[in-house]
Design brief:
The chain has helices at residues 29-42, 63-72, 99-109, 115-122, 128-131, 133-138, 141-149, 154-160, 165-178, 183-191, 206-254, 256-265, 267-280, and strands spanning 9-15, 19-21, 48-53, 56-61, 76-82. The protein contains 13 helices and 5 strands. It is α/β, with parallel strands linked by helices. α1 crosses α2, α1 (29-42) crosses α4 and α12 crosses α13 (267-280). The protein folds into 3 domains: 6-87, Conserved hypothetical protein from pyrococcus furiosus pfu- 392566-001, ParB domain (Alpha-Beta Complex), CATH 3.90.1530.10; 99-197, Arc Repressor Mutant, subunit A (Orthogonal Bundle), CATH 1.10.10; 219-280. The chain has a 5-stranded mixed sheet with strand order 1-5-3-4-2, with helices on one face. It is elongated and about 120 Å long. The longest helix has 49 residues, at 206-254.
Length: 286
């Protein structure tokens, strides 16, 4: 946000036709739609920051808001007017809300506003995904408290939700006593949970994933065995064919008439046959 000196700033409504952007910004369609929905639902929360020169107002901060207001057909825009461009200091260190902070903010807002109004401001149909209502419903209040404090990561809370609340408290105590809040520790404790303490509400549980992994491994081993049998049979056939070839070659080379004929008319073939015999008998080829 801009940080102008209060004494050099005045608030006023400016006709949108008198506003001129100094620079343009790009934004994703999703975020622009969210901004548009926000303005439709609750109006313009943050005025544009502008500098007046003669009868024109140059936008120093708020181009995206200006674009959205144009699209909505707004004729007059609330603005903070600076006496000089030099007074404008942009804050480039913008800290965006984390998912945890956003959930906390939304829950606080629900104390005063209904869900449909807030959802409309965010440009979504429902807040269930953002609020993780299903996850919170499956967690013990003590686990929710640690999640809200930031001690427990959301990924860890999702893993713990695979067991019933009673078991969740047991795992939480183990994590507190050991000072280990890691996902690996949570997964180990969940996997060690007895069947009667496992939640029946969740799908694709860690125990099912383990069974699927075993089935996949057995399937892969079966495929490897098939490939091994195929190549073993192929090798045996190759060895058999090679022995037969060696026998035929030996008969040709060992007969004086055939040998003399090949030596006279097919010397290269005779040399090749001799090398085949030498290799089959383990002799060095000269």
């Amino acid at each position: 946000m801009p940080k102008p000196e209060p004494a050099n700033v005045k608030g006023t409504d400016v006709p949108i036709v008198k506003l001129t952007p100094l620079r343009k910004r790009t934004i994703s369609k999703k975020n622009y739609a969210k901004l548009l929905a926000n303005i439709k639902a609750v109006g313009l929360i943050e005025p544009l920051c502008v500098c007046q020169e003669d009868d024109q107002y140059f936008i120093l901060d708020g181009y995206l808001r200006y674009t959205a207001l144009l699209e909505l057909g707004i004729e007059t825009v609330p603005c903070l007017v600076l006496a000089s461009r030099d007074l404008y200091t942009p804050n480039r260190q913008v800290n965006h809300l984390s998912s945890k902070e956003e959930v906390r903010m939304l829950r606080k807002a629900l104390e005063k506003l209904d869900e449909s109004t807030i959802a409309q401001a965010f440009g979504v149909e429902s807040l269930k995904t953002r609020l993780n209502t299903t996850l919170y419903r499956d967690l013990h209040p003590l686990v929710v408290a640690e999640l809200e404090k930031g001690t427990l990561l959301q990924s860890v809370a999702k893993e713990i939700a695979y067991v019933v609340p009673k078991r969740q408290v047991e795992i939480l105590k183990l994590m507190q006593e050991g000072g280990d809040w890691s996902l690996a520790f949570a997964k180990a404790q969940v996997l060690a949970t007895q069947p009667n303490l496992r939640s029946k509400k969740r799908r694709n549980t860690p125990w099912q994933r383990g069974q699927n992994t075993k089935r996949d491994l057995v399937k892969k081993l079966a495929e490897v065995e098939k490939h091994y049998d195929f190549y073993s049979a192929l090798y045996r056939q190759y060895v058999g064919d090679l022995l037969k070839l060696a026998i035929y070659v030996r008969q040709i080379v060992s007969r004086p008439e055939l040998r003399d004929y090949m030596a006279e008319h097919h010397a290269d073939d005779l040399k090749f046959f001799e090398s085949v015999l030498a290799e089959s008998e383990g002799k060095a080829v000269g």
